[in-house]
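subagent[fold] <- orchestrator: predict structure for attached chain, return tokens only, no commentary.
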Amino acid sequence: MAGCQSIVRLAGLVLGLWMAAVSGGVLGASSDFVRVDEYMQRHPEQQALMADLSARVRGPAVPLSTPPLREIRIAVIYPALQASDYWRRSLASMEARLRALDMPYQLKVYMSRPTVDVNLQARQLTNALQWRPDYLVFTLDTVPHLRMIERVLALGRPRLILQNVTTPLAEWEDDPPFLYVGFDHEEGSRLIAEWMLEQADYRGKYMTLSFSSGYVGRMRSDTFVGMAGRHPGLERVASISADGDPERAYRETLRTLEAHPDLTMIFAASTDVALAALRALRETDRLDVLINGWGGGSAELEALGPGGLDVTAMRINDDNGVAMAEAMRMVMLGQQARVPAIFAGDIVRVTRDTPPERIEELKRRAFRLSESSDDG
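subagent[fold] -> orchestrator:
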């Protein structure tokens, strides 16, 4: 009977995932999410748990003293088909840490393009769940993702890790995912905005450019716009979502430059649109326009400097892969109660003026486990 009930529940989930994938829309306002600082104020016990996991991530691997009875199963669904190497490095660092911890595992990995492949992601999620993993690593950017995740949470298994999200969803506080992991989009955008606005002397015209209108683009762009809005000398003249198409970002940048030849800044909310906009600036000889990257992966660091990107928020990338592996180890040791709700890795501002030796130091730290997987 229990087996039949499981089949019925899974069939209902499959139908729900299909319905979620075909229902579009933009994820709710940023007020639907709880900022990291606010979350810790509501849950002060989390501060010590987050500090403990951060210490584990920064420290060396401590292998299990007793081999586990079976391999853990991990399903990963990543929007990794993009210029940023963030997702590929996260996967490589998670696997490297699992091996260092002597934790045997089986892994199924599903790749897709961000935003535009929601139907494919729904099919991948159905296939992953039919495999019955112990852990599911997924992300949250659009309304369809939201509905898919809610149906997984309703099942109670597998343990759900939401990556690239460090702001818990308010409506899930009573039934949260196992772990939110990644890097704080607001913190990174604040680092970028502080530098760019100062360089522009707090005046001039600017545009914002997002890969999509989903959670990530909105959190990053809204933070920049909010900081710029404190200065009356700054004017936003365009707000563009590329709808998952870097070529659209390139074309819209050209149009904005033509309409506003006195453009001062472009805030780019992702690697793909930053590189597309940079191409437009180079072709029009408008390298006087300030432009940022976001993430500080290999492609951005190569483009950073005179005639290229001016600034980026560099994630200490491999931290989130290590954090996922360490959280799984804690569960295996019966320490699930010590796993925090959120892990937010370190972010460092890097500019066109940062000395090369400093960048190399940061790369060694950020890519300490994933460097061998770097495909540029």
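orchestrator: received. Logging for downstream: The radius of gyration is 21 Å. Residues 2-183+318-345 form a domain with the Rossmann fold fold (CATH 3.40.50.2300).
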